[in-house]
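Known limitations

Files may contain more than one protein. Parsers should not assume a single record per file. Below, a two-record file is shown to illustrate correct handling: read the sequence, read the token line, then continue until end of file.
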Amino acid sequence: MLDLTRRSFLVLGAATALSACASTMPLLPASASAHPAELTREQIIVAINAVRAANGAPAWSYNSQLEDAARSQARLMASKNTMSHNLGVTLRERVTTAGYMGAVGENVGKGYASLQDVIQGWMNSPSHRKTLLSSKFVEFGLATTTASSGKRYWAMIAGGSFDAWRVYQ
């Protein structure tokens, strides 16, 4: 009987912990766990905006210039087999080269097998979570690639108006 009570307590505790996560990380569409190379733009938009909606943030639109800059970063990280925001080319340089002139923030990831996994990783990191849920950004682009080592690299760049960041007095 003691084992059953202890087991029940552990199950109840795990269920409580998981239910607390549900408000911040919704069940993503099955497509979010698809092979990354098979993800469509629509699947990416749905997955990102599902997490934003579950956390009270408005939906973002997709921006192909930000996707180009994210692809550049994912490929750079894969070529160097290193995860970093700056591998000799800054975020500002990458988005400017892609033709984007607004304010930007970036999330990067390494080793996540699916979109759902990388989103969960970003939600578990305070700084990445802040970018993913920011109301100051209004659009994003996302890209992933695999290094010759087999490691998968992810980059998401969020963008919006510089005005959203100005402090008026």
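...continuing to the second record:
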Amino acid sequence: IQHNRISNNYGGSGVMLTGDDGKGNPTSTTTNNNKVLNNLFVDNGDGLELTRGAAFNLVANNLFTSTKANPEPSQGIEILWGNDNAVVGNKFENYSDGLQINWGKRNYIAYNELTNNSIGFNLTGDGNIFDSNRVHGNRLGIAIRSEKDANARTTLTKNLIWGNGKDIKRCEAGGSCVPNQRLGAIVFAVPALEHAGFVGSRGGGVVIEAAKLQKTCTQPNEQGCNAMPNQNIQAPRLSYSKGQVTATVQAQPNQRYQIEFFANYQAKSQEAEQYLGTQVVTTNAQGQGQAMWKVTSSVANVTANVTDRLGATSELSPAVRIK
């Protein structure tokens, strides 16, 4: 599917690639190896959907955009139980979610730009990798939701995230409209359609029984709720002295972790405007490890996150001021 203008499709999507068996169940071999390249998607409910087993598809170099004429700006792309797809080099703007993944696995999402969405990336699923994307000017940069699979892991690496926290309360089958929602570059446990705390439209004709709505655990040993996403992996603690940032990890003993350092040009920013680099640390028997980063560029502050050996990435640490 190449070099098309696809517009004004509501109640669904501009293009749907699905392995649906006709009864709502996924099939694994029917909708593979398609390519969606260099198209313009304008004012669709969802621009594109990869659902119910759609796998090994390539979506590259498309523009997914919505205007004020769109009555239901939901997602640029929704991936629902879609696996092993590559989404590369696209732009997503003016939607509730730029890209939403619902329980898809091993998708590779890289070099995309997401701006002026309520949420840039709105995510569940296991083994999905988000690499070198530009996420700016949204209400939330990257939201990782809690889900029933407590072992699901989302990997974030080298993404540039800045200028979010905008007042964009656009919530058509996604987005962020909770009044007191914690904002930021990467935020865990943001409520979505399946959660009791979601504020917004769950979609035309969609009714979810209150008893089936999910909740996120907020207390240790709490029952009947989802664990915090990404095993609630904790960001490193940063300190700065004599031109060098020290990142301290407190995690599992005798394990390998990857720390990524980011910088911001304004001291008040707590996001990840510039990628500085990566250090690998191994924790000791007490679960502690340290990494050093010498600051050579002219930046105002530095922040960092950490990824474990199985691919779960933390939120960003509080920034440490450089000047």
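Parsers that stop after the first record will miss the second one. For reference, the second record is described as follows. The mean pLDDT is 96.
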